[in-house]
Queue: 3 jobs
Job 1
Amino acid sequence: MDEGVRKYIEKQKSPQKEMLLRLREIIVGNSPGIREQMKWGVPEYEGKYYIVALKDHVNLGFSLKGLSPEEEALLEGSGNTMKHVKISSLNDIDEERITRLLNMVKR
């Protein structure tokens, strides 16, 4: 794990810390060897994904590059280059759905 990412996750409160760890595990497991770094003050993965702890939830962000309008509609937010899905609890982490979204952006 990148040292900056480790420090970022360690300083978060529960349940955000556990949600970040689980999402990171899914990202890295889905893309072995993906470069992980701190960018924009949050963990970022080769410009394709990011994870961020917020006051009462975690966002898993996705690059919009190459996505169809139908694929973009699966994500939340009003960004022009990145959108996200909101995770409010560990129970919200649907690994199958998240893997589909990761693969959608990965291609």
Job 2
Amino acid sequence: MICPMTRKTRQQGFSLLEILIAFSILALSIAILLKIFAGGVQTAAVAEDYTMAVQLAESLMVRAGVETPLQAGQILGRDNDKYNWQVVVTPYRFSPPDVDASKLTTEFFVVDVSVSWDDEGTNGRSLELSTLKLRSKPVEPPS
């Protein structure tokens, strides 16, 4: 029979060093995950700003020639106390081959829309859209 006092007793549980290392790894993992989620939230906010800016620019582009006359000029404005916009309409001159430009019944205009905004005061962001629109030439009475 072996005496219980002479036999080495095996230690049960974790040492303090093992617990400290495990908590350090856990804290580091949580910090990395929080940084990833914070970056995702920031990216979603930037994407939302771009979406709103594109919708505003498309809306302004559609209005040109419908709500406002399609003529050369520039219009400036501000929307939602955040987005500054500019619509520039310029005539588009071209001469198709074998066509007398004076006989054309339509005029072409280039509509450029620019929208800019501040991204939480750190850096400005902007986007530009451009399209070509038609307008019937005014009919001049024969003289």
Job 3
Amino acid sequence: MNTPNTLLVDTGPLVALADKRDAAHVACTTFLAAHRGRLITTWAVLTEFSHLTPTIAATLRLYRWIDRGGMDILPLGRDELVRAIDWIEKYADRPMDLADASLVVAAMNTGIHTVWTLDRNDFDTYRLPGRKRFRLAMP
């Protein structure tokens, strides 16, 4: 699953893409237009997006784009949740939310360590096993 130019996608860029008033909208739109590779996210990220997005129309646009092959969604079953809980406990001082924890688990499961995020502070702090850092794909 880990191929060159494959990115894990956090909530921030999705919200910025959906909201033209968002300060990162233009940068994220430009970044997405230039990206040649796969995009992967998790159900926890999509849930967070649906709560932060300005309208149901924006949410439906994202879901339709995913349906057309714009992005893959990794499962978040019981095993992944248990692993995510461990990460949430480890970073309780930040605090780490389920969306971020699901991306850490996804990174471990897929070997993809590049994340498209606007949340530089957290993903600069999180460490994968072996103290490996995330690579940040930032617009």
